[in-house]
Amino acid sequence: MNFKEVQDLLRMMNVDMSEHHALRLFMMADRSQTGSLEDDEFVQFYKMLTQRDDVLRLFQGYSSDGQKMSLRDLEEFLRTEQLEGDRSQQRALELIDCYEPSDTAKMLHAMSIDGFLMYLSSAEGSIFNPHQQGIYQDMSQPLCHYFISSSHNTYLLEDQIRGQSSVEGYIRALKRGCRCVEVDCWDGPNGEPIVYHGHTFTSKILFKDVIAAVGSYAFKASEYPVILSMENHCSVDQQRAMAEHLDHILGDRGS
């Protein structure tokens, strides 16, 4: 896998990383200096990519030998940090069986740093109350009574100066349940309004494509209203074009 293919993979995985940092990790993993990652080199790249120094320090703080957590080590972590209580030994065995990728470690009733990271990154390691993952609030109040999950410069996939604009930004935000997206509108060629970060080198996308994406994905993750926060810099003629696209694409869903 060459560096361009690695970049494409990172985008598919929604990994937000600068090109400079990704290239540095790539070159460190490319021990054969062939310009591509093969087998163990890719594994090394992945480990560097996902390394969490804070988790490693926590792991080593509870590990007796700094290499693995024994059953007793993991029990102590569960009692002290996770407040698991009297059931900590059975819970530790369950977690090792579920998250530990090494069969050898499983046989020893131990957990490696990889298993520990997988556990903490899972839903079971989440700090949030699982009973509040769904909608549990009173949703009968006026819209202005709620905090709303909002996105800024939704169209940007990268930085605000030279980054790429894409309808994919809207799709990602809406699929994650975002209820307010930003649309910066400017005059475009051939009478078609465009969306981009004005007075910068960011790329440009068509306003009508943005609205089509919103129309398709607005209610995939939630049934509640989506607010289009429009920063309007368009001329009167292109504002008319915007209104036509909103009416034609969204129909009675827009208000």
What features would you describe in this structure?
It is a single chain. The protein has 255 residues and is an alpha+beta fold. 44% of the residues lie in helices and 7% in strands. It has helices at residues 3-12, 19-29, 40-50, 53-62, 71-80, 88-99, 103-107, 113-121, 168-175, 207-217, 236-250, and strands at 180-186, 194-195, 205-206, 227-232. It has a four-stranded mixed β-sheet. The longest helix has 15 residues, at 236-250. It is flat and about 70 Å long. It starts with a helix and ends in a 5-residue tail after the last helix. It catalyses: a 1,2-diacyl-sn-glycero-3-phospho-(1D-myo-inositol-4,5-bisphosphate) + H2O = 1D-myo-inositol 1,4,5-trisphosphate + a 1,2-diacyl-sn-glycerol + H(+). InterPro entries: EF-hand-dom_pair, EF_Hand_1_Ca_BS, EF_hand_dom, PI-PLC_fam, PLC-like_Pdiesterase_TIM-brl, PLC_EF-hand-like, PLipase_C_PInositol-sp_X_dom. It is found in: Cytoplasm; Endoplasmic reticulum; Membrane; Nucleus.
